[in-house]
Amino acid sequence: MRTFVALVLLVATAFCQPLTIEEKTKGFTPRKGFFTFWWDAAKGRLWLEIPQMDDPFIYVHSLASGLGSNPVGLDRKKLGGTRVVHFTRVGPRVLLMQRNLKFRALSQDAAERAAVEESFAQSVLFGFDVAAESAGRVLVDATDFIVRDAQGIARTLKRAKQGSFKLDRKRSVPWLAGTKAFPRNTEFEALLTFSAEDPGRHVRQTTPTPHAVTLRQHHSFVKLPPPGYQPRVFDPRAPSFSVSFADYATPLDQPLQQRWISRHRLEKKDPAAKVSEPKKPIVYYVDRGAPEPVRTALLEGARWWSEAFEAAGFKDAFRVEVMPENADPLDVRYNVINWVHRSTRGWSYGSSVTDPRTGEIIKGHVLLGSLRVRQDRLIFEGLEKRGACCGLAAPGGMDALAALDPKSDPVTVSLARLRQLSAHEVGHTLGFAHNFAASVNDRASVMDYPAPLVKVRPDGTLDFSDAYAVGIGRWDIYGVRYAYTQFAPGADEKAARNAIVEEWLAAGLHFLSDQDARSLGSAHPLAHLWDNGADAVVALRHALEVRRIALATISAKNVPDGRPRAALEETLVPAYLHHRFQLEAAAKLIGGYHYTYALRGDRQPGAIPVAPERQRAALAEVMRCLNAGQLSLPRRLLSELPPSPFGGRGATAEPFPRRTGAIFDLLAAAESAADLVLAAVLHPQRAARLAAPPADPKQLKLAEVLDTLLGSTWSAVPSKAPHLAAIQRVVKRRILDRLMNLAANPSTSADVRSLAAARLRTLRTMLENSIGGFGGSEDALRRMAHEDLSRFFVRPWSPDGQGTTLETPPGSPIGR
Prior knowledge:
- This protein is α+β, with helices and mostly antiparallel strands.
- Among the domains are: about 1-220, no CATH class; about 665-800, no CATH class.
- The chain is built from 24 helices and 26 strands.
- It starts with a helix and ends in a 22-residue tail after the last helix.
- About 40% of the residues are buried.
């Protein structure tokens, strides 16, 4: 009996005893690396060995394959967030926990650090069951962790109004081709299928069966960088990105918020030498999927940065090469310039895997959209007199990319743009922000958005030879010097960094980034996207002249042989709207202010209004863009614009708007172009600045702007030319609608609303007195406008009652 009881206890103990890792993984396929894992082919499960608990590492998720739709944003090789995480065990469970690095105590006092950690929440990202263990090592089933929507794909699709997609677990599996282990990183991949009954338009355009969207998602476990990296303090006058955190151990007389710039680790072999080779160079790799001659252009453009690193004291510190065969672009050991395809043109991105603790960049990761070449091609097809076009613009043009004639002028320009774009996006991954004021310093930075600089020859033809700058800019060199210079041992680093800043201030260089440039209502007269020149007014005048020349010569000859004649509209759009971004730049002088990212003591000025005469000059040039002659097209050109042929309707995403069905609608094109002016001039923020009491009584005021706008349109004598008079009526109607919206806009100031309302009352009186004096369509317009204004003042205003605002064809990104 005792023997039987002992045997029972022995068997029970054996069943309770967890299996060893060796026993559990018998027959599985191992992959040894930073985190070792096993593949159970029989059950399709992936098992992860955790060598030690509570050791922090970096976790990154990303997309290995994309949807191919720029508006949705689920692009091939797109990175997700970067987190510092660790595994911790609680009984039979293992938790993957993320540290909260937003709040810290940089102190040697453990109790002080613990007080901060315990004051703010952490995040548990996933939970696992312990399946086996051996000598402190633990084995867990990682399949459900890997085969999940970590990237938020379903959420992204829903936010883009593409349907209520859900992950279908039966059609989702670990993807072994992208699952690998290396000494410093382990990579996992999953094939995920999302299903929905209501797929949206962009999903239907890019997915073979829209109800089932299948993408590949990637996970990276990355070893923390070794010690020795020295964080560098952020300076708002310098162009570096930064990591930000609250340090509760700072002295009471110091700021709580601390910021360290983002940069790669780069160290000299000889720290005392003025110029030294690095211990380890920064190497970038170009996607082998980029065809020639694009691949060479990407290599050449990215290599421009080597000049800046030489100026920072490094020899051969920055290299760019073609990606090794069979290398994975998502492997964190490689800084990669990825070539990404989408169904439409869209933005490119420069992102990084960055250590959130210090700001050290571990991996640079560029996504370049391939259709930028087509957009550049369209721009120059529209500007060329004869339109000598290549196979790139024809159906299947991307397949013809490798066969582009390098002697063709537009091809040369397109490749010049790609070189600049490669340098721009790599710049982001080196840690640098946009500088949207570089164009005023003779294109001083590749981190600006460059408009093509088209010159006019003495004979009146257009010259594209200097369309895009070549090489790194002066501003970029200063940025690299600030971020990457390794100062001599014993040097006062703070003083040395400030000396670099003082150099570029003395050189008259400007730095203004996204926050001061992207909004149409922004105030700075130098911060613009896609502009040229030091003087925005002169540059707008030049852009209008380039546009005039292009529209005078554009014809069916600008369409390649064998393509539908209706394709001329694709070429016409960027030519007709050639001035759109320079117009925005000039409009920013109106109600504009000069300012810098000044620090106290650096002798830079505060906010100073743009001089009155400059504002009035800008207003006068912007008002030219509302002239009916500017908005019209040559009559012979209208006869060359047939409807889309059979099978071609809707083939382009960027036609002019129209209310005339298949027939080209000149009035709709003119209306959309006019609205570009009105949206800028009557922007609520600009109007509020103009309405505020000025320090200088000579300053331009909102009342003067409104009087100028109404005086040059509603108060002007209509043209005797019927087609010009029709355009004038379109412009006047848009002005009326915009003013009524401004007068009823609750987000702007009371002064703006009251001034706009006062001018509308004056306009109503003028209309009342003028109805019947013109006849025909002009009288009809005035009668309707008077009735609309009467309703506006006696009941709540609803812009929905005034017809649909036409959508202007997309502008940004140019060649991106």
